[in-house]
Amino acid sequence: MDNITESPVKNIIEIQHLSKHFGPVKAVQDLSFKVKEGELFAFLGINGAGKSTTISIMCGQLSKDSGTVYIGGSDLDHDANSIKRILGVVFQNSVLDKSLSVRDNLESRAALYGITGKAFKSRLSELADLLDFTDLLGRTVGKLSGGQRRRIDIARALLHKPKILILDEPTTGLDPQTRRIL
What we know:
The strands form two sheets. Strands 2-1-3-4 form a four-stranded antiparallel sheet, covered by helices on one side. A two-stranded parallel ribbon has the order 5-6. The model has no long low-confidence stretch (mean pLDDT 90). By secondary structure, the protein is α+β, with helices and mostly antiparallel strands. Helix 4 packs across helix 5. The chain contains six helices and six strands. Strand 1 and strand 2 form a beta hairpin. Helices cover 33% and strands 22% of the residues.
C-alpha cells in the first residue's frame, strides 16, 4: 500500500485586521478573512459595509490604514505588482471606454498583458463564445445595454486568465440566462 500524503489546500487570499478610515468614517474596521485556492467566496454585507473599499485595497487602488493583505502568497505592501497580475476584477461600475467598440476595448486591455495578434484573437473568440457576445464585437460600448456591458466587463477581467476573479456586485444588470452562465 502506498503512503500518499495530500498537500493541504493553501490560502490564496489572507486578510488580517484590515482597517480603512475616511476622516471620521470607518469604512473597514478590523476585517479578517481567508479564502482557500479553488474556493468560491461571497463577501456579503449591507450597503456601506466596506466591501468595495476592501476590493479597492486588494487591487492596490486604495491604501489601507492598517492590517495585512496577502494574495497569492504575496504581501500587498511589498509586491503589489505581482498581485495585480493574478487578479481579474469586475468593478461595481463599468471601466470600459464607451466611445470604443467592444473589440477595441478588449484589444487595448489585452495588450497591457502582452496578449496580441493570434493569441488575442483566440482568447477573444473563446470569451465571446463563453459569454455570448460575438454579435457585439463591432458595437460601441456606449450603445450597449447594461447587461451587455456587464458581460464585456467580465470578459475584460478574464482576458489574462487570472488566478483570482473578483466580482463587485456580480449580477448587477445581468439577465437570468447570463447569471447562470456566470
